[in-house]
Amino acid sequence: MPAASKVIADRNVQNVILGDIFFKTWYPSFYPEELVGRDTERLYVCRWCFKYSKELMPFSAHVLFTQNLSLFAKLFLDNKSVFFDVAAFNYYLLVHTPTPSDTPICSHHQIVGFFSKEKMSWDNNNLACILVFPPWQRKGLGKILMGVSYELSKREGRLGGPEKPLSELGRKGYLGFWEARVARTILEMKPKTTTGVSDIAQSCWMLSEDVLITLKEMRILGPKKRADGSAVVSKGRVREWIRTNGVDLAPPISEGGFLEEWAPEEMEDVET
What we know:
The chain has seven helices and eleven strands. By secondary structure, the chain is an alpha+beta fold. The strands form four sheets. A four-stranded mixed sheet has the order 2-1-3-4, with no helix packed on it. Strands 5-6-8 form a three-stranded antiparallel sheet, covered by helices on one side. The chain has a two-stranded parallel sheet with strand order 7-9. Helix 4 crosses helix 5, helix 4 crosses helix 6 and helix 5 (197-204) crosses helix 6 (208-218). The N and C termini lie far apart (43 Å). The model is unreliable at 266-272 (pLDDT under 50).
Protein backbone atom coordinates (compact mmCIF):
# COMPACT_ATOMS: atom_id res chain seq x y z
CA MET A 1 0.00 0.00 0.00
CA PRO A 2 1.31 3.49 -0.80
CA ALA A 3 2.26 5.83 2.03
CA ALA A 4 -0.68 7.72 3.51
CA SER A 5 0.63 10.97 2.06
CA LYS A 6 0.55 9.47 -1.43
CA VAL A 7 -3.06 8.26 -1.37
CA ILE A 8 -4.80 10.53 -3.87
CA ALA A 9 -7.37 12.85 -2.28
CA ASP A 10 -9.64 13.20 -5.33
CA ARG A 11 -10.54 9.53 -5.67
CA ASN A 12 -13.88 9.10 -7.42
CA VAL A 13 -14.55 5.88 -5.46
CA GLN A 14 -13.68 5.87 -1.75
CA ASN A 15 -14.32 2.21 -0.91
CA VAL A 16 -15.19 -1.02 -2.74
CA ILE A 17 -17.10 -4.10 -1.69
CA LEU A 18 -15.67 -6.99 -3.69
CA GLY A 19 -18.23 -9.74 -3.19
CA ASP A 20 -18.55 -9.47 0.58
CA ILE A 21 -15.13 -7.93 1.34
CA PHE A 22 -14.94 -4.21 2.13
CA PHE A 23 -11.71 -2.21 1.63
CA LYS A 24 -10.47 1.29 0.77
CA THR A 25 -9.25 2.38 -2.68
CA TRP A 26 -5.93 4.12 -3.38
CA TYR A 27 -6.34 6.01 -6.66
CA PRO A 28 -9.09 7.33 -8.97
CA SER A 29 -10.26 5.11 -11.80
CA PHE A 30 -11.97 5.79 -15.11
CA TYR A 31 -15.42 4.43 -14.32
CA PRO A 32 -18.13 6.24 -16.35
CA GLU A 33 -19.25 9.25 -14.33
CA GLU A 34 -22.87 8.80 -15.38
CA LEU A 35 -22.86 5.34 -13.78
CA VAL A 36 -20.57 5.81 -10.80
CA GLY A 37 -20.63 9.54 -10.10
CA ARG A 38 -17.82 11.89 -9.09
CA ASP A 39 -17.54 10.92 -5.42
CA THR A 40 -18.93 7.51 -4.55
CA GLU A 41 -18.63 6.35 -0.96
CA ARG A 42 -18.79 2.66 -1.87
CA LEU A 43 -18.89 0.67 -5.09
CA TYR A 44 -20.26 -2.86 -5.23
CA VAL A 45 -18.18 -5.13 -7.46
CA CYS A 46 -18.98 -8.69 -8.54
CA ARG A 47 -16.28 -11.10 -7.38
CA TRP A 48 -16.62 -13.13 -10.58
CA CYS A 49 -16.73 -10.65 -13.45
CA PHE A 50 -16.00 -7.31 -11.71
CA LYS A 51 -19.23 -5.77 -12.94
CA TYR A 52 -19.89 -2.69 -10.81
CA SER A 53 -22.82 -0.78 -9.34
CA LYS A 54 -23.43 1.97 -6.77
CA GLU A 55 -26.36 -0.04 -5.43
CA LEU A 56 -26.41 -3.46 -3.81
CA MET A 57 -27.94 -5.67 -6.47
CA PRO A 58 -27.66 -9.23 -7.82
CA PHE A 59 -25.31 -9.57 -10.79
CA SER A 60 -27.20 -11.75 -13.22
CA ALA A 61 -24.78 -11.52 -16.13
CA HIS A 62 -21.01 -11.77 -15.98
CA VAL A 63 -19.91 -9.74 -19.00
CA LEU A 64 -17.12 -7.44 -20.17
CA PHE A 65 -14.79 -9.25 -17.80
CA THR A 66 -11.36 -7.87 -18.78
CA GLN A 67 -12.63 -4.31 -19.14
CA ASN A 68 -14.28 -4.41 -15.73
CA LEU A 69 -11.20 -6.03 -14.19
CA SER A 70 -8.98 -3.26 -15.61
CA LEU A 71 -11.24 -0.52 -14.28
CA PHE A 72 -11.26 -2.15 -10.84
CA ALA A 73 -7.45 -2.54 -10.86
CA LYS A 74 -6.99 1.19 -11.60
CA LEU A 75 -8.35 1.92 -8.11
CA PHE A 76 -5.05 0.53 -6.79
CA LEU A 77 -2.62 1.42 -9.60
CA ASP A 78 -1.23 4.87 -10.26
CA ASN A 79 0.27 4.63 -13.75
CA LYS A 80 -1.82 2.32 -15.93
CA SER A 81 -4.17 3.57 -18.62
CA VAL A 82 -5.52 0.60 -20.64
CA PHE A 83 -9.16 0.01 -19.74
CA PHE A 84 -11.28 -0.24 -22.85
CA ASP A 85 -8.91 -1.46 -25.59
CA VAL A 86 -8.19 -4.79 -23.88
CA ALA A 87 -8.33 -7.07 -26.95
CA ALA A 88 -4.55 -6.86 -27.43
CA PHE A 89 -3.85 -8.44 -24.04
CA ASN A 90 -4.09 -11.83 -22.38
CA TYR A 91 -5.12 -11.87 -18.72
CA TYR A 92 -3.80 -14.44 -16.23
CA LEU A 93 -5.77 -14.80 -13.00
CA LEU A 94 -4.64 -15.88 -9.54
CA VAL A 95 -7.58 -17.66 -7.89
CA HIS A 96 -7.80 -18.72 -4.26
CA THR A 97 -9.24 -22.20 -3.76
CA PRO A 98 -10.72 -22.61 -0.27
CA THR A 99 -9.84 -25.37 2.19
CA PRO A 100 -11.83 -26.50 5.26
CA SER A 101 -9.51 -24.56 7.58
CA ASP A 102 -9.90 -21.23 5.80
CA THR A 103 -11.25 -18.16 7.58
CA PRO A 104 -14.59 -16.65 6.41
CA ILE A 105 -12.76 -14.11 4.20
CA CYS A 106 -11.37 -17.03 2.16
CA SER A 107 -14.28 -19.49 2.33
CA HIS A 108 -15.04 -19.42 -1.41
CA HIS A 109 -13.23 -19.34 -4.74
CA GLN A 110 -11.97 -15.83 -5.22
CA ILE A 111 -9.84 -13.98 -7.78
CA VAL A 112 -7.14 -12.36 -5.62
CA GLY A 113 -4.84 -10.95 -8.31
CA PHE A 114 -3.87 -11.01 -11.98
CA PHE A 115 -1.40 -9.89 -14.56
CA SER A 116 -1.90 -8.91 -18.18
CA LYS A 117 0.45 -9.51 -21.07
CA GLU A 118 0.48 -8.15 -24.60
CA LYS A 119 -0.30 -10.77 -27.21
CA MET A 120 2.47 -9.31 -29.36
CA SER A 121 5.16 -7.16 -27.74
CA TRP A 122 7.95 -5.76 -29.88
CA ASP A 123 9.83 -4.88 -26.67
CA ASN A 124 9.60 -8.47 -25.37
CA ASN A 125 7.49 -7.38 -22.41
CA ASN A 126 6.26 -10.47 -20.58
CA LEU A 127 3.96 -8.46 -18.32
CA ALA A 128 2.02 -5.24 -18.81
CA CYS A 129 0.07 -4.85 -15.58
CA ILE A 130 0.22 -6.77 -12.28
CA LEU A 131 -1.87 -6.45 -9.15
CA VAL A 132 -2.61 -8.46 -6.03
CA PHE A 133 -5.75 -7.03 -4.43
CA PRO A 134 -5.07 -5.27 -1.09
CA PRO A 135 -6.64 -7.87 1.28
CA TRP A 136 -4.24 -10.52 -0.10
CA GLN A 137 -1.02 -8.51 -0.33
CA ARG A 138 2.18 -9.27 1.64
CA LYS A 139 1.69 -13.00 1.20
CA GLY A 140 4.21 -13.58 -1.61
CA LEU A 141 1.48 -13.86 -4.25
CA GLY A 142 3.02 -11.19 -6.47
CA LYS A 143 6.12 -13.36 -6.87
CA ILE A 144 3.92 -16.20 -8.10
CA LEU A 145 2.48 -13.98 -10.82
CA MET A 146 5.97 -12.75 -11.78
CA GLY A 147 7.22 -16.33 -11.85
CA VAL A 148 4.44 -17.33 -14.21
CA SER A 149 5.26 -14.44 -16.54
CA TYR A 150 8.88 -15.59 -16.82
CA GLU A 151 7.86 -19.20 -17.30
CA LEU A 152 5.74 -18.04 -20.23
CA SER A 153 8.79 -16.20 -21.63
CA LYS A 154 10.78 -19.41 -21.34
CA ARG A 155 8.12 -21.40 -23.18
CA GLU A 156 8.00 -18.75 -25.90
CA GLY A 157 11.79 -18.83 -26.20
CA ARG A 158 12.12 -15.09 -25.55
CA LEU A 159 14.06 -13.15 -22.90
CA GLY A 160 11.53 -10.85 -21.32
CA GLY A 161 10.68 -8.42 -18.58
CA PRO A 162 7.91 -6.16 -17.33
CA GLU A 163 6.70 -3.11 -19.20
CA LYS A 164 8.61 -0.02 -18.12
CA PRO A 165 8.75 2.39 -16.44
CA LEU A 166 7.92 0.54 -13.23
CA SER A 167 6.08 2.25 -10.41
CA GLU A 168 7.85 2.66 -7.06
CA LEU A 169 6.02 -0.35 -5.65
CA GLY A 170 6.57 -2.31 -8.86
CA ARG A 171 10.31 -1.68 -8.84
CA LYS A 172 10.58 -2.78 -5.21
CA GLY A 173 8.62 -5.96 -5.90
CA TYR A 174 10.57 -6.85 -9.03
CA LEU A 175 13.96 -6.23 -7.42
CA GLY A 176 13.10 -8.74 -4.69
CA PHE A 177 12.03 -11.27 -7.31
CA TRP A 178 15.03 -10.66 -9.57
CA GLU A 179 17.54 -10.82 -6.73
CA ALA A 180 16.43 -14.27 -5.64
CA ARG A 181 16.31 -15.45 -9.25
CA VAL A 182 19.84 -14.21 -10.02
CA ALA A 183 21.23 -15.56 -6.74
CA ARG A 184 19.83 -19.04 -7.47
CA THR A 185 21.39 -18.98 -10.94
CA ILE A 186 24.84 -17.94 -9.71
CA LEU A 187 24.92 -20.57 -6.96
CA GLU A 188 23.96 -23.29 -9.45
CA MET A 189 26.92 -22.49 -11.71
CA LYS A 190 29.98 -24.74 -11.74
CA PRO A 191 32.93 -23.62 -9.54
CA LYS A 192 35.35 -21.10 -11.09
CA THR A 193 33.04 -20.59 -14.04
CA THR A 194 33.65 -17.49 -16.14
CA THR A 195 30.35 -16.03 -17.25
CA GLY A 196 28.86 -12.73 -18.32
CA VAL A 197 25.69 -10.77 -17.73
CA SER A 198 24.26 -12.15 -20.96
CA ASP A 199 24.88 -15.72 -19.75
CA ILE A 200 23.03 -15.06 -16.49
CA ALA A 201 20.24 -13.42 -18.47
CA GLN A 202 19.91 -16.51 -20.68
CA SER A 203 19.73 -18.80 -17.63
CA CYS A 204 17.13 -16.59 -15.93
CA TRP A 205 15.19 -15.69 -19.10
CA MET A 206 15.66 -12.07 -18.01
CA LEU A 207 16.73 -9.02 -20.00
CA SER A 208 20.44 -8.19 -19.60
CA GLU A 209 19.60 -4.67 -18.42
CA ASP A 210 17.48 -6.13 -15.58
CA VAL A 211 20.29 -8.52 -14.57
CA LEU A 212 22.77 -5.64 -14.44
CA ILE A 213 20.43 -3.52 -12.30
CA THR A 214 19.94 -6.47 -9.97
CA LEU A 215 23.65 -7.17 -9.53
CA LYS A 216 24.27 -3.52 -8.66
CA GLU A 217 21.41 -3.46 -6.14
CA MET A 218 22.70 -6.64 -4.48
CA ARG A 219 26.19 -5.09 -4.19
CA ILE A 220 27.88 -8.44 -4.72
CA LEU A 221 30.33 -7.34 -7.41
CA GLY A 222 33.92 -7.65 -6.21
CA PRO A 223 35.91 -4.42 -5.63
CA LYS A 224 38.64 -5.47 -8.05
CA LYS A 225 38.19 -5.89 -11.78
CA ARG A 226 40.06 -8.16 -14.13
CA ALA A 227 42.49 -6.93 -16.76
CA ASP A 228 39.73 -6.99 -19.37
CA GLY A 229 37.55 -4.76 -17.18
CA SER A 230 35.08 -7.48 -16.14
CA ALA A 231 33.84 -7.66 -12.55
CA VAL A 232 34.07 -10.69 -10.30
CA VAL A 233 31.15 -12.21 -8.38
CA SER A 234 32.02 -14.87 -5.83
CA LYS A 235 29.54 -17.39 -4.52
CA GLY A 236 30.73 -16.48 -1.03
CA ARG A 237 29.45 -12.92 -1.53
CA VAL A 238 26.14 -14.26 -2.77
CA ARG A 239 25.75 -16.56 0.25
CA GLU A 240 26.61 -13.70 2.60
CA TRP A 241 24.01 -11.51 0.87
CA ILE A 242 21.42 -14.26 1.36
CA ARG A 243 22.21 -14.61 5.08
CA THR A 244 22.25 -10.85 5.67
CA ASN A 245 18.90 -10.25 3.94
CA GLY A 246 17.18 -13.45 5.04
CA VAL A 247 16.28 -14.34 1.48
CA ASP A 248 14.36 -17.53 0.69
CA LEU A 249 15.70 -18.95 -2.57
CA ALA A 250 12.84 -21.41 -3.08
CA PRO A 251 11.33 -20.79 -6.54
CA PRO A 252 7.86 -19.21 -6.26
CA ILE A 253 6.43 -21.61 -8.87
CA SER A 254 7.06 -25.14 -10.08
CA GLU A 255 7.40 -25.98 -13.75
CA GLY A 256 5.50 -29.18 -13.03
CA GLY A 257 2.46 -27.13 -12.09
CA PHE A 258 1.85 -26.06 -15.68
CA LEU A 259 -0.55 -28.03 -17.83
CA GLU A 260 0.95 -28.44 -21.27
CA GLU A 261 -2.32 -27.84 -23.03
CA TRP A 262 -2.38 -24.37 -21.44
CA ALA A 263 1.10 -23.45 -22.63
CA PRO A 264 1.21 -20.58 -25.15
CA GLU A 265 1.48 -21.62 -28.75
CA GLU A 266 4.67 -20.77 -30.60
CA MET A 267 4.30 -17.42 -32.34
CA GLU A 268 4.78 -17.41 -36.08
CA ASP A 269 7.32 -15.07 -37.64
CA VAL A 270 5.76 -11.93 -39.02
CA GLU A 271 7.18 -10.47 -42.20
CA THR A 272 7.47 -6.69 -42.30
